[in-house]
Write a structure and sequence with these properties.
The structure holds two protein chains of two kinds.
Chain A lengths: L1 H20 L4 H8 L8 H22 L19 H17 L3 H9 L3 H29 L1
Helix pairs in contact in A: 5-6
Chain B lengths: L6 H22 L5 H10 L6 H20 L12 H17 L4 H10 L3 H24 L5
Classes of the chains: A mainly alpha, B mainly alpha.
InterPro entries (chain A): DUF6691 (IPR046513)
Protein name (chain A): Transporter
Keywords (chain A): Membrane, Transmembrane, Transmembrane helix
Chain lengths: ~140, ~140
């Protein structure tokens, strides 16, 4: 119950932030990367603001013995930079550059009634499921 | 040339995005990664984590839905053809799951934790995104 409420509040802050910052609009994303067109610096400022708060906030969190509504912190433990990380990130970057939507903004814009964002988000769910299939098929091969 | 942009809303929006990430860590001890949260819901439907993940997604889409219903959300959109949107969405979904993160998980949370994996992921998807924007907007003249 408490975990649900705190997750909802975190989502609210994040969703308002995406709208206020202009990141729910792919035009701002494309504009940032289009350095040979009309450059739009918005994304850099959003990242700067987000990183400042998260860097300081995480330092405070991790000094505490644990989170408020859960037993322990669940942090990614991997340190290996492997081909899966780089290939996946490259595929993600290709899709991001084609339309200017990444997962958060796609959901926010779709909820706001943007039909193109809803189409994008549906295809994105398909892509996520497709990766899951690849993972399951691989696990099965390893298990057999 | 630099386009019109609003530095104050970009920074404030970034601060709110960071606040969402800090709240989720402080309360539930979790990384705010939209692709991981959404991918977890579609990929592991029976997981005990589904509840907090759905609560987060509900919070994330609430502000956009409310503003959209009030007619107060004006987004320029991506302005690309439907087939391009669908391909882009699929690549974003597949790639972000394969690479274990997107702009929020690697970009905001991972960089704040000074994670080497996230630094490599962000450098990769930013570079590929920039190349994609250059090729599609200047060499192929797709979209606006």
């Amino acid at each position: 119950m408490r975990q649900g409420l705190s997750s909802y509040i975190a989502g609210l802050l994040f969703g308002v932030g995406l709208i206020v910052s202009g990141m729910a609009d792919p035009a701002n994303v494309i504009g940032f990367f289009d350095v040979f067109g009309t450059w739009n610096p918005t994304l850099a400022l959003v990242m700067a603001g987000g990183l400042a708060v998260t860097f300081l906030g995480y330092r405070y969190c991790l000094k505490r013995s644990g989170p408020l509504c859960a037993a322990t912190y669940q942090l990614p433990g991997g340190t290996r930079i492997d081909s899966r990380l780089i290939t996946g990130s490259a595929i993600f970057g290709l899709g991001w550059g084609l339309a200017g939507y990444c997962p958060g903004p796609a959901f926010v814009a779709a909820a706001g009634g943007m039909v193109e964002a809803a189409a994008f988000a549906s295809a994105m769910l398909g892509g996520m499921l497709a990766w899951r299939m690849v993972e399951l098929a691989r696990d099965q091969r390893v298990g057999a | 040339m630099i386009s019109d942009f609003n530095a104050v809303t970009a920074l404030v929006g970034g601060l709110l995005i960071g606040a969402g990430a800090v709240v989720l860590m402080l309360t539930n001890g979790r990384i705010l990664g939209v692709s991981g949260i959404v991918g977890g819901v579609v990929g592991e439907p029976g997981s005990e984590q589904t509840r907090w993940r759905l609560a987060f997604i509900a919070g994330m889409v609430t502000p956009g839905a409310v503003l959209g219903l009030m007619g107060k959300l004006s987004l320029a959109g991506a302005g690309v053809a439907l087939p391009v949107l669908l391909v882009a969405g699929f690549l974003v979904g597949f790639g972000s799951r394969m690479g274990n993160g997107c702009t929020s998980g690697h970009g905001i949370c991972g960089l704040s934790r000074l994670s080497k994996r996230s630094m490599a992921a962000v450098a990769t998807f930013m570079a590929v995104c920039a190349i994609t924007v250059f090729v599609t907007r200047h060499l192929l003249s797709l979209g606006v």
